[in-house]
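Quick note —
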Amino acid sequence: MAATQATPIDAYPLYWAECYGTSTFLPMSRDEMDQLGWDSCDIIIVTGDAYVDHPSFGMAIIGRLLEAQGFRVGIISQPDWQSAEPFKQLGEPNLFFGITAGNMDSMINRYTADRKIRSDDAYSPDDQGGLRPDRCSIVYSHRCREAYGNTPIVLGGIEASLRRIAHYDYWQDKIRRSILADAKADLLVFGNAERAIVEIAYQLANGEAINSIRDVRGTAYFIDDIRPDWTVIDSTSVDKPGRVEKHTNPYDYTGSENAESDSNAINNSNNRCAGEKSPSDKSGDKPVKIISKAERLQLQADIRAKTVIRLPAFNTVSNDPVAYAHANRILHLETNPGNARALVQHQGSRKLWLNPPAIPLSTEEMDFLFDRPYARVPHPVYNGAKIPAYEMIRFSVNIMRGCFGGCTFCSITEHEGRIIQSRSEDSIIKEIEEIRDTVPGFTGVISDLGGPTANMYRLACKSPEIESACRRPSCVYPGICSNLNTDHSPTIKLYQRARSLPGIKKILISSGLRYDLAVESPEYVKELVTHHVGGYLKIAPEHTEKRPLSKMMKPGIGSYDRFKELFDKYSKEAGKEQYLIPYFIAAHPGTTDEDMMELACWLKRNGFRADQVQNFYPSPMATATAMYHSGKNPLAKVKRESGDVPVAKSARQRKLHKAFLRYHDPANWPMLRDALRAMGREDLIGGSANHLIPAYQPRDSAYHSPRRKNSTPAHGDKKQRTKATKKTQASSRAAKKGHKKNTGNPAPAKGQILTQHTGLPPRQQS
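Predicted structure written out below.
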């Protein structure tokens, strides 16, 4: 394992090809290479996304970083995968092919949570679907191997990150091997790849063979045997909450000859006083050496550096869901770059080896990365075609990466890690000015200053030492850690400086807000609500009930209520009519029919109607996915005899949970009536406003299909919405043909129309 100190990404000696300078766009054809004077590319990135030269797109940020090191980088975007010929269009790269499915896992990109094929693709020109294959990284790797059999292949991107180990595949309903095995690639880079990919490029450029690169953090590869100087620990011995190592006695006996005996000395010395003999000491007194805290920490680091944890083998986790849940838990316990150990898993005749995660980027490195000469527009080859994902982030600025929320259904932590990596304020302001001055079509409105979350900018553990030893999966669940700095003043200062720039009319915040953190800083909520909300603000309570929330690692609905009080207060003080848009997930592991019923009742009481809803989507490697597959809870020590988690797997139950979120849709009433009667909750069926659904079914055929988008406008003035509401009520009276009872489903209060995220960039709401 490499040391926890890393070479800055801008500190390497430039490769000889830096004499060619930078290009307006990284080349996608031989003609473009000729114009740049290149006879070949050093590195070719093959991506499943359309090439947009913007720092929100993986191929651009990695390509520009490698260009800054002096390498000649070409892009093959969305090639026809039916043959190897399109993969030869830039010739053979001198160093390696870098393969990524794009900004999304290709299966999640193409299929809905109900396993239905999507007709669109937000990362393709004109939203066109079908331009990338299923399991994109595997197919591209095979074609590159066909094209140039001896060229090294490096997998990266979120698809590789989430499939780096034996993982549950929702689409086949089985455990698959590491994607590295199926792709037959040489090396896999997981997490944000900047640090690793630069190291790999330089090692290859210096003449090292790809199969000899074994010391780069954030990489996975196959080995035949574990080296004898490594200590192997079975995963069952570390499946305990708390620190990686116990606190050590400062009067440790030293002088042992290897790391293993040093480890035993540390463990045994905890119960001994200074000068006391070790039980194993047969030769008499040994000299006592007082070691400093720094020496003790270094000793622990040296031991970890030669320790590997053996996970249950692929064959075991394939046939035993409980073993799979256990392996998933260990994987997540070993993700802190400060204390993570290497992992190994037998997969067939070979062993998959995972180095510890890469060291997070410093602020200076983040600034260097985002200060590359991005064109900030799609490549001209698309001739002005609209790429929806680009249109969404066209005028937005990424200010940080990472998330310490630890939500079990989310892939951010698995990919970007829990440590927040923030840019400097000056770097962010410079990018805003660049957008203002250079991006076509800018109207003065920045659509977002954010990242994985809106309000984790510059938040971190108060103690680097505590941070490096911590194994908690979340800094904010079950409550906010006392060691977490929740000071939002740097974010407030950034917002104020950004909105005061000449030519900037509005700074909106569109990234998801962590409201349980926001309430710790009322000043932040006031700044946000007064200046940075465009009428609606999205937040994600995800549920109202304790049982599913505990499996999501989300705060209780009380945090939402406290935030809503502040939101309403400051909106009123600002003289603005603004509304919260809460998101909810149906059929998440840990959710029962009764939980969904209670959520529906909460929605009804608060006048909310969900227009678009989403069932839980089991993404590879997520903790919630392990719950879905195994019925066990990896948030605690996994036991066969306890810890069972209710899981909605059948199509009917998943449909029912979704129906509860759309309790107001007449098409769902027959199913809901049957469910409520089976649950003994007939008291929720009736004609008054206090009932969840009516006892009758409208005869009008219009009620037998889901309510269309915008049947009650979410935007527009009060008069317009009231008119639509009266029209709906009139239709209801006609459908009842004289029935005198109220449906109990009045139109929502003003602004209270919900939408639910889908995993793709949000569609434009009319």
